[in-house]
Design brief:
2 copies of one chain form a homodimer. In chain A, the strands form 3 sheets. Chain A has a 7-stranded mixed β-sheet, sandwiched between helices. In chain A, strands 1-2-3-13 form a 4-stranded mixed β-sheet. Chain A has about 450 residues and is of the alpha/beta class. Chain A contains 14 helices and 15 strands. The first copy, chain A, has 2 domains: about 140 residues, Aspartate Aminotransferase, domain 1 (Alpha-Beta Complex), CATH 3.90.1150; about 260 residues, Aspartate Aminotransferase, domain 2. In chain A, α6 packs parallel to α7.
């Protein structure tokens, strides 16, 4: 796991954190990993900042659940009010869930006209698989080589990123991630679609019926691959020609993260059959969902009993509606586009002066910076040094990619220019301390 | 589905509810079912009551999520306070999750010493299956004939209650539910264990390695079968002798529901390898979990990356800790035992005077009443008439069982004698209106 704390270094930690690490091992077991070479104990959040137990402040350029801002007062009030009024399930009639559903569906193409609620993105992915397999009567699923789609048995089977100890399912085929910067003259969209077509043919040759292709619309775990916008249309065509469904995993790109559009797939101008969403949907409240064409859902919905006890409960819906309010009222999509563009331009300028940065990519407030060594090979150690160096300077980011050499920069959506500059300065300082090249333009910038 | 609203009768509903039913069909699709012949629109909850849009009051003898009482002020305050302070995930260090985990584990046998958090009971069941299959390297699972364990792909495969449109998995064997009232002199625990042993042998004969036996410790969907306490020990012995794991599904019986003990398996004096819990854990906040022997979890935890974004987040833990406070401070387990015994005795008295009630069962505040026709055959229509008759009289219960002829009575845990009498009077009135036999003892009782 990228940016994981190494438990073999526990003895070197301060006593307070050391005690927590040991208690975690004792009661939560070894499955619970911490971030950073020196784990953080956070006790408070407000806006784009979090605070540790000693009162130190951290600029949050990582967490994509509290996208509207930590402890956003509008969301806190909506949840607190609803908690005190009623929290029940969908087998009683209620209007708020319908009001919210209609608002949510209005952000989708017209033919994506039904929504079902779950509690987590994993449950949403799992439900999308169930719907797809029921509808197509196939079982085969195609994913990218380093995809991650969740933690249920079925979602983990389509998540090769989990590594050798979690086998990819026997009915799951993988394709290489898109190569947006290929230089051989081949259109990257056509090349990616050709890989999907080959996988479908191979799957069918093995007697496995094709159910669905699923991809994160930003390819977050494959290294964050947003461009060129539009490159997914040929894949949609290939999938539909083979009778399969296209599932857009919007758990990470959705809810205005990419700046250009509300949903990541919209940047590509495509219409998926199913979209799954989660993380920022309730700004921390466990709510997620599946938006699907009614033509595809109808028979499943009629014949299969599916009841999610907490899914779409009164409080989760109140949280989700408040999040939509904030996105609209505070112009978070436009802000993501504006601040994301600024950050990308500045990072590109920095990259042009550094031998260690091989690429900068991004859409809105979801940015990637690749690090390489002197031979041009992926440098996971350099990426790790930047992540931990920023943490020491009070800025939180993460890492990703097949080789772990890609910085994952996901500022909260209300980031201002001042927050962006705070990030850039810390970034610049970190590179300087590592002895990397510093472009003058960044080093000389004032706050 | 027992107690489902029949959408073909939509035209007969009042305009307000009719509009909601039509909107639901349009945006949520046909998968979303409502309860009752006339669905309820509920807008407020307080203690053991809920209120509809017209201000009518309903005594809640059904919902097992808000077990501590609707909108319990201690839980509402804990959630509201934590929402305003911080809501983040388990990859940062924090003490509250450890404080809660230690309290929770203290209610379990000593060897069940690790806990992992999920958001739903389904995710917990799914994780228990992943752990079991990893540990045993088998895939085969044994469940009872009308079991329900959840909605993920893997959980639905072990849920025959979902019916013919959701096939039981190929690696899943079913056994007949326990028959506690068999009269042939055979010990019901030995008889049930013999069925499990046969299933294991048949599974192995088919080349499928045995991973786990899983059962709701109250057999809720098999008709609610609590007695005789202790009958599960022979099954644990058979499962362990075959190298499999025993998973106790405590989503329904857990958290003091059965009155006698905190966990349903404790009534039977057994020690499972894994227990899964959910529904009432956060009194409506989506939190669930798996408690497991560290000896079983260790290798899975070390080798398999499992991160549940919302699982064990700051707010969910605050809710769960508040629920434990309420259970302890208000003596809800003792209350469940006391009021449950009173209700059972009164219902048994009623049954003895009725040809239509063939059995009354229960443990704590989880009670079952079976209805039969004049030939002694299961009478789902009579059960449905009681459920809907009670709803008209302002009391909420549900139905269950293989034949849908069993009333599912699950009062909120703070039920008092007065609430129990309110329930019994409405029950008596309902039977009277149906023209069933009324025992004088109930009819004559004052409030």
């Amino acid at each position: 796991m990228v940016n994981a704390f190494d438990v073999s270094t526990t003895d070197a930690l301060d006593p307070a954190i050391q005690a927590i690490v040991r208690r975690r091992a004792r009661v939560l077991g070894p499955g619970y990993k911490l971030f950073y070479k020196t784990p953080l104990e956070l006790v408070r959040g407000e806006g784009v900042y979090m605070y540790d137990a000693q009162g130190n402040r951290y600029l949050d350029a990582y967490n994509n659940v509290p996208s509207a801002g930590h402890c956003h007062p509008h969301v806190v009030k909506a949840v607190s009010d609803q908690m005190a009024k009623l929290n029940t399930h969908t087998r009683y009639a209620a209007e708020p869930i319908l009001d919210y559903s209609e608002r949510l569906l209005a952000t989708f193409p017209a033919e994506m006209d039904n929504v079902m609620f779950t509690c987590t993105g994993s449950e949403a992915v799992d439900l999308a698989l169930r719907i797809s397999r029921f509808y197509t009567q196939g079982t085969g699923v195609i994913v990218t080589a380093n995809a991650y789609h969740g933690l249920t048995t079925a979602a983990a089977e389509i998540s090769p990123q989990l590594g050798a100890n979690v086998p990819v399912g026997q009915h799951v085929w993988t394709v290489a991630a898109p190569q947006p910067d290929r230089t051989d003259g081949v259109d990257p969209g056509e090349a990616f679609a050709a890989g999907v077509a080959e996988a479908i043919a191979d799957m069918q040759r093995h007697g496995v019926g094709f159910a669905a292709f699923i991809a994160d619309s930003l390819f977050s775990t494959d290294g964050i691959l947003p461009d060129p916008a539009g490159f997914l249309q040929p894949t949609v065509n290939v999938v539909h020609a083979a009778g399969g469904l296209y599932i857009a995993d919007e758990v990470q790109p959705g809810f205005a993260r990419t700046g250009d559009t509300m949903w990541g797939f919209q940047r590509h101008g495509i219409v998926p059959d199913i979209a799954v969403m989660g993380k920022p949907m309730g700004n921390g409240m466990p709510i997620a969902g599946v938006v699907v064409k009614s033509a595809i859902l109808d028979e499943f919905g009629t014949k299969v009993r599916y009841f999610n006890t907490f899914g779409g409960n009164s409080v989760s819906i109140a949280a989700a509606a408040a999040v939509l309010d904030v996105i609209e009222n505070e112009g978070l999509q436009e802000n993501s586009q504006k601040i994301g563009r600024y950050l990308k331009e500045e990072l590109e300028q920095l990259a042009s002066g550094s031998d260690n940065v091989s690429a900068v990519r991004g859409a809105g407030l979801y940015l990637a910076v690749d690090f390489v060594d002197e031979a041009g090979l992926p440098a996971a150690d350099a990426a790790s040094d930047v992540i931990n160096g920023l943490r020491q300077r009070g800025v939180l980011i993460g890492g990703t990619g097949m080789y772990g050499n890609t910085l994952k920069i996901r500022p909260l959506l209300p980031f201002t220019h001042a927050h962006a500059n705070e990030f850039l300065h810390a970034f610049d300082d970190t590179l300087a301390a590592m002895g990397r090249n510093r472009p003058a333009s960044v080093a000389a910038r004032g706050r």
